[in-house]
Design goal:
This protein has 158 residues and is mainly α. The chain has 6 helices and 2 strands. Helix content is 66%, strand content 3%.
Length: 158
């Protein structure tokens, strides 16, 4: 029988924690927008807050239901990637399809996390042009699960 008292209860991040996370993410988004010569995106504050809360919820879930595994930075960034794809919290002014900017942003976060993790492990990545093209398509048009994206990120490190 499961003793629920032994598991941590989810509490939303404090305002300070949310603001710190939001500032970091917004700084990255601005850098990304500049790197692709786009204007600064508009931010849906409610969706951004929901994204931060959902990542934190998943962190608690991961700790409770997968205690033998570490969540790790790679999986955390994959969660940000997933929720950016689902919630589309950013929009370029005049953009009728916010999914496109969010897809490209999510892809940049995902690949950067994979590259950084590979460097940390002193390994390489398996991101060929064909895989990059397929991932861009999948990020835009397929309904990828969080778990599938975590597994995918891990398998791209060789």
């Amino acid at each position: 029988m499961i003793n629920l008292a032994q598991y941590p209860r989810f509490a939303p991040p404090t305002r300070e924690q949310s603001l710190l996370c939001a500032r970091r993410l917004i700084a990255y988004v601005r850098d990304f927008a500049q790197s692709i010569n786009a204007c600064l995106p508009l931010i849906d504050a409610d969706r951004l807050n929901e994204l931060i809360v959902r990542v934190e919820q998943r962190r608690v879930y991961f700790h409770v239901f997968h205690p033998e595994m570490k969540m790790g930075e790679l999986n955390e960034f994959v969660l940000y990637t997933f929720w950016i794809l689902k919630l589309c919290p950013f929009r370029l002014p005049g953009d009728f399809d916010p999914g496109l900017f969010n897809r490209d942003l999510a892809f940049a976060i995902f690949t950067r996390a994979v590259f950084n993790e590979a460097i940390k492990r002193e390994k390489k990545t398996h991101l060929t042009r064909a895989i990059i093209d397929k991932l861009l398509y999948d990020f835009r048009y397929r309904d990828l699960s969080k778990e599938a994206m975590m597994t995918l990120a891990e398998t791209l490190i060789i």
